[in-house]
């Protein structure tokens, strides 16, 4: 397997994307504002304040077309070694 050169900013971006999920609530999925009895565009974010000692990530990649949804099975290079070092440093720093 080929080694990939990964910058620390790339690892941070991977870490951020793994730990923060943002969902846009719009169109048919708008936020319901009960006090004003209306629907509004909004965004919802889920984030981890602190990571566990062991975290398992499952990457499920799908492609959506007019004919339906299909699983993407192409190889996705992951900088696991640099990513693991980065996470260890983050855990040590608190």
Give a description of the structure.
By secondary structure, the chain is of the alpha+beta class. The protein has one domain (8-93). 28% of the residues lie in helices and 28% in strands. It has two helices and six strands, in the order H-E-E-E-E-E-E-H. The strands form three sheets. A two-stranded antiparallel ribbon has the order 1-4. Strand 2 (31-33) and strand 3 (38-40) form a beta hairpin. Helix 1 crosses helix 2. The longest helix is centred in the C-terminal third of the chain and has 14 residues, at 80-93. The mean pLDDT is 75.
The largest pleated sheet is described as: 2 strands, antiparallel
Number of domains: 1
Helix coverage percent: 25-40%
Sheet with the most strands: spatial strand order: 1-4
Mean pLDDT equals: 75
Indicate the low-confidence ranges by residue numbers. Answer: none
Q: For the CA atoms, what is the radius of gyration?
A: 18 Å
Question: How many helices in DSSP terms?
Answer: 2
Distance between the termini: 33 Å
Principal-axis shape equals flat
Give me the count of strands. Answer: 6
- Structure classification: alpha+beta
Along the chain, the helix and strand elements come as HEEEEEEH
Q: Give the amount of beta strand, in percent.
A: 25-35%
């Amino acid at each position: 397997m080929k080694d990939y050169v990964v910058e620390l900013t790339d690892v941070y971006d991977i870490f951020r994307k793994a730990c923060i999920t943002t969902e846009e609530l719009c169109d048919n999925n708008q936020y319901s504002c009960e006090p004003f009895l209306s629907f509004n565009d909004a965004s919802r974010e889920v984030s981890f304040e602190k990571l566990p000692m062991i975290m398992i990530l499952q990457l499920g990649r799908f492609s959506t077309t007019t004919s339906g949804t299909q699983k993407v099975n192409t190889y996705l290079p992951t900088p696991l070694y640099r990513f693991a070092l980065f996470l260890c440093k983050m855990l040590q720093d608190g």
